[in-house]
Amino acid sequence: MPELACPQQCSFCDQRQISGKASFPAVEEIIQKIETHLASFTCEDREVEIAFFGGTFTGLPLITQEKYLAIARNYIGMGFVTGIRLSTRPDYIDEENLHLLKLNGVTTIELGAQSLDDEVLIRCNRGHTAQQVADAAEMINRFKFSLGLQMMIGLPGDTPEKSYTTAQKIIALGALETRIYPCLVIKNTKLAKEYAEGFYKAMELSEAVGLSAELLLLFEQHGVKVIRLGLHRSENLHNGAMITGPYHISFKELVLTEIWNKILLAEIGETNSESIHIQINPAELNFAIGYQSKNKKVLMNRFRQVKFSGNNSLIGRDFILNSQ
Fold first, then answer.
1. Number of other CB atoms surrounding residue 26 within 10 Å
2. Segment 163-214, tens digit of pLDDT
């Protein structure tokens, strides 16, 4: 969904360039998209949701919301889809709309909180306060929806400390899920003008990766699922829409590589051996080796031989280190 229903033009945002959409999708287009994806799934034991993302869903006229939700609800009735999720603004949440969403099969509501620091919100021209995020979160939880709170790092006026505090507040507000997006400078936005005039400096990629690693560990510690790290791949971003910023097609892999780098270096410490063998949960094996084998290369500078292998008995980021 493009940003046509958004009441504000945030300083960092041009959803049309990010999403590649300039108008609302027609009913036929939505049905075709759903059918195409359902046909691509080979596993029968699956959980499938239909998601309306990109704009302010609850800012649409109620009749339009009902039209779109009716399409998705039909697939729930047929047993092909388990639920509906949507994204919206915290200041576009009220009890009337939540009743409508509940009646139409919506299960998860994600709010674009971005920051829970009022100074940052003002700098970004968000048009709402941190308290409005808290109030919307309370209503969503009261209506028994699953709550997601999205955040951005590197926003104008932001600092790593403020981002960390935002993450702590997201946890305290009862979010079950979050997304972490680094702020990018997109052409034809207010932020692009600020950047050109020297009033804004984008985060370096390494800084964004390091901060995201800290935030991911914090969310994991408190049982909040991080369902996205970094922006989705977009042809528009690759074709000149982005001016600068910490974008990487494998941003999540970089973050998990950073986490494993610290884990391994802390554990290995002053190990005096010629070779080491590290057994890892297979799901974490690639991240432990690292993006472009970064972590293995670091270890190869210290040891003559470094071997990684999968061990199905290990859980999460547990590992076994053998040295000789």
1. 9
2. 999 999 999 999 999 999 999 999 989 999 999 999 999 999 999 999 999 9
φ, ψ for residue 209, nearest 5 deg: -65, -45
CA pair distance 21, 19, nearest whole angstrom = 5
Report the amino acid identity of residue 274.
Answer: E
With a cut of 90, say whether residue 41 has pLDDT above it: no
CA atoms within 13 A on the CB side of 157: 16
Q: Could you tell me the strand order of the sheet in which 146-153 lies?
A: 49-52, 83-88, 106-114, 146-153, 177-182, 225-229
Residue with tokens 């690639």: 286
Domain ranges of the chain: 3-249, 268-323
The topology under which CATH files domain 3-249 is TIM Barrel (3.20.20)
304-323 burial string, b = 16+ CB within 10 Å, else e? Answer: eebebeeeeebeebebeeee
